[in-house]
Amino acid sequence: MFAFFNKLYKPGKFKKNGDVKDVLVVALPMLLSMSFDTFMTFIDRLFLSKLGPAEMNAALGAGAVQLALITFFTGAISYTTAMVAQRLGAKKHRDCAKVFMQAIYLSFICVPLLYLSIPLGHIIFGMENLPADQLQYQKTYFNILMFGGIINLVRNAAPCFFSGIGETKIVMQAAFVGMIINVVCNFFLIYGAGPIPAMGIAGAAYGTLIGNFVSTVILFAKFFSKSYHKRFNTRHSFAFSKPLTVELLKKGIPSGVEMFLNMAAFQLLILMFHALGPESATASSIMFNWDMVAYVPLIGLEVASTSLVGRYVGAKEGAAATRSTYSGLRIGWAYSALIGMLFIFLPGVLADIFRPDANAGASAISIFENARPMSLFMLRFAALYIFVEILLVIYAGALRGAGDTLWVMFASALMNWFVAGALYVTAYVFHLPAHYAWIAVVAVYSTAPLFFLYRWKSGKWRKHLLDAKA
Hints:
The protein is mostly helical. It has one domain. Helices cover 83% and strands 0% of the residues. It contains 21 helices and no strands. It has helices spanning 2-8, 20-49, 53-77, 80-89, 93-116, 118-127, 132-147, 149-164, 169-191, 201-223, 226-232, 242-275, 278-314, 318-345, 347-352, 362-386, 389-401, 405-429, 434-447, 449-458, 462-469. The radius of gyration is 22 Å and the shape is globular. The two termini are 43 Å apart.
């Protein structure tokens, strides 16, 4: 697989055309690296599902809250990709490494703030009216991930330099190694083997941190390697830069607020589904686990869109920025066609992967069997928005790359909170069954990406291109 990318990708060459091949060079490794990250999380929950629905549901609930609390910081820092890309396009190569180091400094500064938010997570869990066993599992998983927050913050910042310069193969390789380490650690830490005790859900959290740490070390080793130092002066990029930090905060904070509000809305969705009962909680957990498998790799396309549009804006090539966006759409729709067919024709196979083992107990098996029909319906119906969300992913990434982060923040936050509102009205005001609530969620979500399409078509993002020319 890596040999294929060696042929496809040649470092340092930049053609201003934005065709499918140019997008694939950046997007395909990022799509695969996000797939590896998704597979890590999926395996965590799959292993835990064999212990029982409580452990699987706890990992989903705790993971969502942890992401909601950390995404403000990771979202703000993620604008590093666009800043690096813009400077690469403007041929300011040494500034690329300097921008990245400012992002690392900000990651360390954010750690105390992250620790202060841990009690807030516990308050949220107390509002969910969870069974006692799930609540305890959820707190354990959450606490471990939060106290290992520095690993997660730096792990999210580390790929930004490479995605910004469009050399994403190393990100893919690091994610692949991290995935393998994570899966191996999870198996031994969750179930135990020999002298290693069975740690259950705590083992899943530790395995995640270990995998993320290894992939981060690989990226830093590459960043400081001789070849990258020669091109970007990486070993002499440690100086603090106030102008770069201010720009990163000014443009990145809207992205951080956006991601925080989006994840908070997603956590509210999970909370409301879980509050409808154990069957609804299990069905929605199965659905959201597979939705994650379908959606998260597309973030690789979003990162590629941000990187390419940012680079073309920096190079003052507006036409190429537009072409790269349309190329990303074609790639995304091809991917979504495959995922949609799986959701429509194989939902039973997808759901049964999470069936508890026989020794999980009669209660756990009964909950799964009662939840299974609802999970099949949710999976089939989710196929409707798979194609539409490509518009959201590509155009949101493109608008961020062009510097239009404030509009993306407001539009994305409003979309996700309208989705949460649709669930609340359907399930808690009209008291309709959970599958009707899921219909409302999908219906609202499917229409929202059209606003991102309209924003791009309006051409208002081009004012940032004019700023680049100035």
